[in-house]
Amino acid sequence: MDQPLLQRDLGQRSSGSCRMLKTWLPILAWLPKYNLKWLQMDILAGFTVGLTAVPQALAYAQIAGLPVEYGLYSAFMGGFIYTLLGTSKDVTLGPTAIMSLLCFSVVGGEPHRAVLLSLLCGLIQAGMALLRLGFLLDFISFPVIKGFTCAAAITIGFGQVKNILGLQDIPHEFFLQVYYTFYQIPEARIGDVVLGLLCLAVLIMLMLMKTRLGCDDAPRYSKIARTFVWAVATMRNALVVLAASLCAFSWEAFGHHVFSITGKTAQGLPPFKPPPTSDTTANGTVVSFGEVVEGFGGGLAVIPLMGLLESIAIAKAFAGQNNYRIDANQELLAIGVTNLMGSFVSAYPATGSFGRTAVNSQTGVCSPAGGIVTSVVVLLSLAFLMPAFYYIPKAALAAVIICAVAPMVDYHVVADMWRVHKLDLLPFVVTFLMSFWQVQYGIMGGVAVSGVLLLYSTARPQMKMSDQGVPLITLASGLSFPAAEHLSHVIHTKALQVSPARSVVLDCHHVSIIDYTVIHELSDLLRHFKLQDVDLIFCGLQPSILDVLLAAHLEGLRFADSVQAALQMASGNLSTTLSN
After folding, report:
1. Under a CB-based contact definition with an 8 Å cutoff, are residues 403 and 291 in contact?
2. Cα–Cα dist 427/145, whole Å
3. Second label for 276, Cα 20 to 30 Å away, from 152, 270, 543, 545?
């Protein structure tokens, strides 16, 4: 090989290796373009998101049934990992309300099992990314997602009513929870009720103020006021929790136990250690790794899939809004590695957060590096603020959770599905109702119903039938093996079970796929047509379909380019027959 050709070949290989490396490490694509302005915006956005992430992480740990510090343990690893592996500048990874609820439904609030669940979820998610299995998420339909999120929001929101009322010993099962919450209302603590309702009112007021800010072309003094209102409203969770904690501390300092408070929390950063591979029950019995995994059941499939679905949906939404593209499989890898590494710092499963991602985007983040600043804020909170978390009222955290999940109850979608496609309400309703029993059963039930509907549409493809002197059957989609028996029955009914038997024209303009089962059924049909001395004529065959039919050596196969030509052949005006 001469020197120029060798140099060009080496250059192409080097270029290909560079592209591959940038695919697996997206930071290499944007880091060379990083500048001072990006740094300023990333620090601002990361700090703002951090002030939102800390109170939310504390609150979501309660949903998972874990000590509040586990929420913070789960909130910082994602920022570092996503900076290296993520393809969206806006997405922030960490604990979310839905993942916390799913985690509780599987591990029942046991910290060791929650950490092991994070490890296994990370392995599954990273494995799916490496095997390019992201397409599996396409089988979870929108009605299933909406049914689940609506039910989860109601379950999570009502689950916090007991903390607003200051009630104790309320069961975790939803229906028992509803019964005992209303049954024990007379035992409600006045201090928790007043503080909880006040926190709710302030959070709702600030949220409404943020949505009703004026236009950008207002006078300067108005812009300053808008910026101030936006900043206060954006940090509303942190401000409300801080104010409530100061109030609780004041009462506690004078010896008055007016509020139910969070209580003692573990101090300092979590140790970096391998996640536990076994567990020990309260009576000292050691539970092996296999028994723990067996206890996870279907949750070990549902939680990784829902984590991926939630994060990728968020990434796609903000990518479209801000005019850039994401790599879905790379997002899977980022989430998987986050959960995998998070298990070494006692984290439970994390995913993308819609609320914090929205704050990140609205604050003007320029790169995934904003997540590093958010993670540093969380780490500083763990290192220095844990003693102060002792005084956080449970009613304040409950108010934060209720306001976070309330927008997830999208009742408008029911009317939209009724108007657009009523059958989609079936998986929605099944998912919604079953999720009150067990959230993972709701998802699996909804996916099963969606699968049945999908299989039914495949097994019963749409066919338009008309009489043009001879029966004309127009197929509206591809033909695969579930549809073979139905197609044969329709043709038999229209052509061979009448007296006298009639020829049939099969319009295949829309058929782009066909398999061996259908070919076998067509072979039987052609034989029956031949015995009845009538014809089955194909028209509008695409080249790939015609090649398959010819390769099958179907006896008595007849076809035409157009419907008109096929009708003339069926009427006996043309007699071109291809026999093999």
Report:
1. no
2. 10
3. 152
Total domain count, the chain: 3
In a domain, 483, yes or no: yes
Q: Which of 372, 390, 408 is the last residue of a domain?
A: 408
User: What's residue 190's pLDDT?
Assistant: 92
Closest CA to 475 of 513, 529, 441: 513
The bridge status of strand 504-507 relative to strand 351-352 is unpaired
pLDDT at 260: 87
Task: Give a yes or no: residue 336 inside a domain.
Answer: yes
Check residue 403 and give its pLDDT: 86
Contact 382, 345 (CB under 8 A): no
Which residues of the chain have a pLDDT value below 50? 1, 5-6, 10, 573-580
pTM beyond 0.85: the answer is no
Distances (CA, A) of 525 to 42, 317, 500, 562: 68, 49, 17, 21
Each residue's pLDDT tens digit, 244-266: 999 999 998 888 888 888 877 77
Residue whose entry in the numeric block shows the structure tokens 């008309």:
466
DSSP 69-94: HHHHHTTSHHHHHHHHH---SS--EE
Same domain, 543 and 566: yes
Distance from C-alpha of 537 to C-alpha of 504, rounded to nearest angstrom: 6
CA angle 135, 141, 146 (to 5 degrees): 130
